Amino acid sequence: MLRDSVTRLQNQPPPPTPVLPALAMVALEPKISLPEKFDGTRLKFRGFVSQVRLIMQLHPRRYFDDTTRVGFIRTLLTRTVAAWFAPILETSSALLQDFNAFMAEFEAVFGDSDKARIQLTNCVASSKGHVRPLSMPQNSGNLSRRQLGKSCLDLSILLWAL
Hints:
Elements: H1 2-11, H2 22-25, H3 42-58, H4 66-74, H5 79-90, H6 99-110, H7 115-127, H8 145-161
Helix pairs in contact: 7-8
């Protein structure tokens, strides 16, 4: 009788391996706050885009393709920006499947429209020893303040002519 019980136990299939939830097998993605919805305010554009890109980098499994990335950005648009996006969606624009092209168009429409003035501001600050201007090469630290000031003056004259 004992021998029969042992034989029966030995002949039973092994118990199934417990299945872990998929979430336990995948490294947890960090929690990060969503940015404030973007309403087209140009001063907020750079911060908005930086936050969105960070979220996508930290959640690569969630935002795994261009369509998903563009769709995610749409959920964060409001007012005139949402109205701008509507025809892109309604016409099934190629921008929906090309994140980089979408971002280029997004920046062209809502990004900083006055990059030259910002560049001039950076030049002025640089000539006072604060920061290197954006348009100058990395080795511009070797330029004298006089040379740097002349480059900024040239940029200033060009802007004034426009």
